[in-house]
Each structure stands twice: as structure tokens, then as C-alpha cells.
Amino acid sequence: MKKRDDLTKDLPELPESGQSRRRFMGAAALAGVAGAAGLGTAVMSRESFAAAAEEARNKFVVHPGELDEYYGFWSGGHSGEVRVLGVPSMRELMRIPVFNVDSATGWGISNESKDVLGHDNTHLNGDSHHPHISMTDGRYDGKYLFINDKANTRVARIRLDIMKCDKITTIPNVQAIHGLRLQKVPKTKYVFCNAEYVIPHPNDGSDTSLESSFTMFNAVDAETMEVAFQVIVDGNLDNTDADYTGKYACSTCYNSEKALDLAGTMRNDRDWAVVFNIERIEQAVKNGNYKTLGDSKVPVVDGRAGSELTRYIPVPKNPHGLNTSPDGKYFIANGKLSPTATIIAIDKLDDLFDSKIEPRDTVVGEPELGLGPLHTTFDGRGNAYTTLFIDSQVAKWNIADAIRHYNGEDVNYIRQKLDVHYQPGHNHASLTESRDADGKWLVVLSKFSKDRFLPVGPLHAENDQLIDISGEEMKLVHDGPTFAEPHDCILVRRDQIKTKKIYDRDDPFFASAVEQARKDGVTLEADNKVVRDGNKVRVYMTSIAPQYGMTEFKVKQGDEVTVYVTNLDTIEDVTHGFCMVNHGVSMEVSPQQTSSVTFKADRPGVHWYYCNWFCHALHMEMRGRMIVEKA
Question: Quick one: which residues bind Cu cation Z3 (predicted)?
Fold first, then answer.
């Protein structure tokens, strides 16, 4: 049996004053809601908290050889990638490069990745925030994951059967795609994404005034990845979500003041949540009631105040997160600079668009939760969980009770507050963006780790914490250091993702290589040969561990060389690689995959290439020579 000191070893130490930083922050959270009648919070003793935490830890352990119950997909933040974790173990399983360059897989180096990124791509960075999985009838279908790039105004799609990005779209006429969510019903027809910053139109330097500036809500066709339409709005768009009817999407907007300075953006006590009527927008586009901007052919409709396509619901203050409850009843707008979250009844939106009620009539609750509410997630049992950035806490509250309190009843809607470490941003409960929210696990993505891990210099890891929410009380069970600020994540059951163990030979991911081989009369699965086309040389080779089908080839100085490697192994996990020494060239070649890379042979002499993915006991011997003859 563990001693009391063992059970409490991870709890904060009390200074001589008897007041820890964590207790102080908890007190601040209580102060933030003290003004609301009937409010309170569940306070646990150190001993009871330690015992509950120990019980929860035993539940989250995944033993060696066992598999996790959930896939977790994390945005990679400034790294520009997506990360795959197992939950509840929080083990990192894979990294999927998207907007970044990755030498391990050759992303940004191989021709197949450049087919996606663009062969003229000059952006070597990305800032990925919001990963979301395609749906059918409000349930995850495991087909695609979509992710934004705030840094370079792009949206990407990842095929979940191979965990590779297969499409990237640059959104025209706007800057900085931030909030991103998917249409849930009847399927993911659209990817909804918010452009955050206002820009003048035309943005050619002739006019930089705010009067000619605006931003837009964007809809991307999930299958073609073409932009379907754009909607001009008032204010700066932040986060977004969609309903469970397919009719409405809603986005938070800040800077109703149209200010350029920080103080100016905080003058108004309320900004707004803007609701988009998707059916009306589609009809307007179909009727030709749109314009285009610049060279773009994307239909642009005007959704500013007074439009029949949108409605603006006043909410406090510089609102940030916008989340749809899994029962489809409510949009929750999180106040950020207000201690409140605003509950918007989706079933009142028809009357709002028919001008039967006023915008604030759609608000059925506005609970005070604490300082700095940013994002809300749900357990499927009627409870919501909101991150409180300033308080460094998560507040668990009951939606129905919050609505009763708003209507004047003396009821306590706060169920519990839990300290997290530190300054949480996004949070995400298992299956919470779907009808299947199961209320088992909550991940809280905290922006600062401070003293939670071994020091590694001035730059610190962030801290993603796993919380057991299966019972009445939240129980913190795991700290997980993460690099370069993941913003958000999504959890899906493992049975909802069906991955391939090896590639199909007709996979579209390397279709361009197959087409070029066809033109050259090459059978990729059998031939090892060199094809010269002027100063362009195409080298085709197979690989079976531990040997390349071609161990030497000759080119001339100045040739543009493209090497195609086809991995003929049919055994799961026998990935090969190709790295040409001193040429900045490397790539992954998984079983039954063809990969290609192009480079300039600009130096005469002998240049070795080798397999850079361990595949065999004789892995070191898997190599070959490129001989470059002087021009």
C-alpha cells in the first residue's frame, strides 16, 4: 500500500504562507464567479484528490503490447504538421508533415509531396491550428482530416487510410485562415474556415485604409478542395462550428470597433457571433447574386450587417471559441475578456432569420464561469467543460442548469473546477464533435508548462494534460510535453479509422510517377533502367530489402536527374528510403509505394546513395553509386 507521501508527491507544495500559486489561482477563479447567485464549486481535500487521481491513473495505463482505445490527432502549431497520438496512453504514434519540410519522409523534397504543396511553393513554414475529421450524419467517417495554415492562408486535407496529406488549397482574397470546422450533416460537403485579418480590396497598395478593408468566411468543397464561396463579414473572424442540420454555421467575431490598436479592440462590451444560413448562401450563388474579386473566380456574397444571408448576435467580449453541443441544441460562444459563455439556441435561428425575434432572443443562457473562458467541450451527458485561461482551470458546468439560472432560478450550475498547468487554450473530450460524445476523456492543451518538466533552456514545451471525466469528478492523470504549440486536437475511436498496411499499386498518391513511367515504357514493378530525354534523366529502380534493383547509374554533369524507387516488399512495416549523399535528397518508400525525387547532378565524380530507413540486418549494405561524368 502506498504511503500518503507517495499519493501526494505530484501535488503542489505549500509555501510557508500556506498559500500555493495553484490555490491562489483557484481562489481567483472563485472570485470570478462570486457575483452570480447560487454559484459554487466542488472543492476536494488534498487527500481525496490524491486518491481519486491514483484511481484514474490506473485506468489510463496502456500496457506494452496493448492498443489505445482512441486515435488523437493534434495540430502541430508552428511546426506545420499534424501529430498522431494514442489515447489514453498519450504515446506519439506518427507525425504527418503538411505545410512543413520533413527530411525523414521527404515531404517537401519528393515529387509526390510537391504535387500536393505545389512545385513552385515558396512557403517552407506553416502554422496549423485546428484538425477536424470528416463526418457522415454527424458521426466521424474516418475518411479525411482537415487542417488550417494560419501563416500562409491555406487549408489541407489528409487521407486517413495512409495518413498522408493529399490536397492543399490556398484561399484567395483573404489572409490568415484561423478557425476551421466541418459541415456535419448529411455529410462533410463543406470545410468552413474563417479568415481572421481584414485587408483592403484590391490589396495592391493603392488604399490601406480600414474603410475598404474586410475579411471573409470561406467554404471549401471537401472532395474537390476548391473554394465554393466566400462571405464578407463585419469584424475579425475567430473560431467557427456547424450545426447538426446542415443549415447553419456560426463564427465568433472580435474587433467590432474596427480598431488597429490593442486598446481599441477592447472598447466595446459586446462583439458578436455571426450565423451563416448555408441554404440561403448556396441559393444566392446559384441565382448569380455574387461578385468576384481580382483574378479569383470564387463567388463572393455580402454578409455584412443587414444581409439576408447572416445574422449578428451580440455576445461579450472579444469572444474566442465557438462550439456546438453534441445534442445539436446549442452554439456556445466563449467570452475571453468576459467571465461568461453565451448559450445560443439553434432551434431559434429559423425565427431569427425570418425576423420574428431579435438577435439576443436566441440567447438562452450566459453563465459566469471564471476568468478567461476560451473553449468549451462536452461529455454527452449534458455537461460542458470550459477552459479558463487566466485562472488556469477547467470549469465543468451543466448546460440545463445554466439555462435555468439565466431564467431566474436559484441553481448552482458549476459542477467542479480543476487546476491545470498552465493557462489552457483548447480542450477536447472524446468524440465530442459528433453525436457519439462518450464522456470518457478530456485533453486540455495548456500554453505554458513552467515547472512541470525538466528544464530544457529558455524555450519550454507546452503541456497537454489528460483528464478522466467518466465519473462525477474530473481527475487529472497525465502530463504530456509537446513542442511548438499544438493548438487543438480531436479524439476518435480506433475502429473509426481504417488504415492500409501496405500501399495499393493503383494508389493516387503516386499517380504522377505511374503516368510518367507509362510514357517512358517502364514497368515500375520490374524494370531497372535509365531513360534520357535531353538533359533530363529518369532513373527507375526497384527495391527489396536489403538491395536496390540498380546499384550504379551514370549521368552527365548538369543533368536534371529524377530517381523513381518502387518498394516491392509486401511485408508490413518494411519501409525503405532513398538518400543521395550531399545533394539534399531523401525520401520514404513504404511497402508497394513508388516515390520519386528530382535534383541537379552538378558535381562530377562518385556520389553514393543509401537506404535511410532501417529495413534489414544488412541495411548498411543497401546502397549504390551515381557516377557523374564531366560535361
Answer: 130, 426
Last residue of a domain, one of 283, 307, 328: 328
CB count within 10 Å of CB 582 equals: 8
Nearest 5 degrees, angle CA 444-CA 449-CA 451? Answer: 135
Q: Is the pLDDT of residue 311 over 90?
A: yes
For position 489, what pLDDT does the model report?
98
What does pLDDT average to over the chain? 92
Type of residue numbered 161: D
To the question of whether residue 193 is assigned a binding role by annotation, the answer is no
129 is in an annotated binding site: yes
Q: Is 405 annotated as a binding residue?
A: no
Asked whether residue 460 is marked as a ligand-binding residue, the answer is: no
Asked, for residue 561, whether it belongs to a domain, the answer is yes
Task: Tell whether the model's pLDDT for residue 10 goes beyond 80.
Answer: no
Q: Is 75 domain-assigned?
A: no
**Residue 132 annotated as lining a ligand binding site:** no
pLDDT in tens, 424-465: 999 999 999 999 999 999 999 999 999 999 999 999 999 999
pLDDT band at 59 (very low <50, low <70, confident <90, very high): confident
Comparing CA positions, the residue from 474, 464, 472, 461 lying closest to residue 418 is 474
C-alpha Rg value of the chain to the nearest Å: 27
Residue 616 marked in a binding site: no
CB atoms within 10 A of CB 506: 8
**CATH number for position 558:** 2.60.40.420
Whether 299 is covered by a domain: the verdict is yes
| Weakest mean pLDDT among 10-14, 278-282, 533-537, 622-626 | 10-14
Total tally of structural domains belonging to the chain: 2
Of 267, 248, 247, the residue nearest 257 (C-alpha): 267
* Extended beta strands in 224-356, E state: 227-233, 236-242, 248-254, 271-277, 300-302, 310-315, 322-324, 330-334, 341-345
Residue 444 located in a structural domain: no
Q: How many CB atoms lie within 10 A of CB 56?
A: 22
User: At 56, is the pLDDT very low, low, confident or very high (cuts 50, 70, 90)?
Assistant: low
With pLDDT > 90 as the criterion, what percentage of the chain qualifies? 89
* 178 is annotated as contributing to ligand binding: yes
Distance between CA 612 and CA 593 in Å, rounded?
Answer: 16
**What letter does residue 432 receive in the DSSP assignment?**
T
250 known ligand binder: no
Which residue has cell 485561461?
389
- The H or E element containing residue 400 is helix 399-406
pLDDT of amino acid 28:
38
Last residue of some domain: 297, 328, 359? Answer: 328
What pTM, to 2 d.p., does this model score?
0.91
**DSSP β-bridge partners for residue 139:** 136
Query: Please, are residues 514 and 525 in contact by the beta-carbon 8 Å criterion?
Result: no
Q: Is 580 annotated in some ligand binding site?
A: no
Residues composing the chain: 631
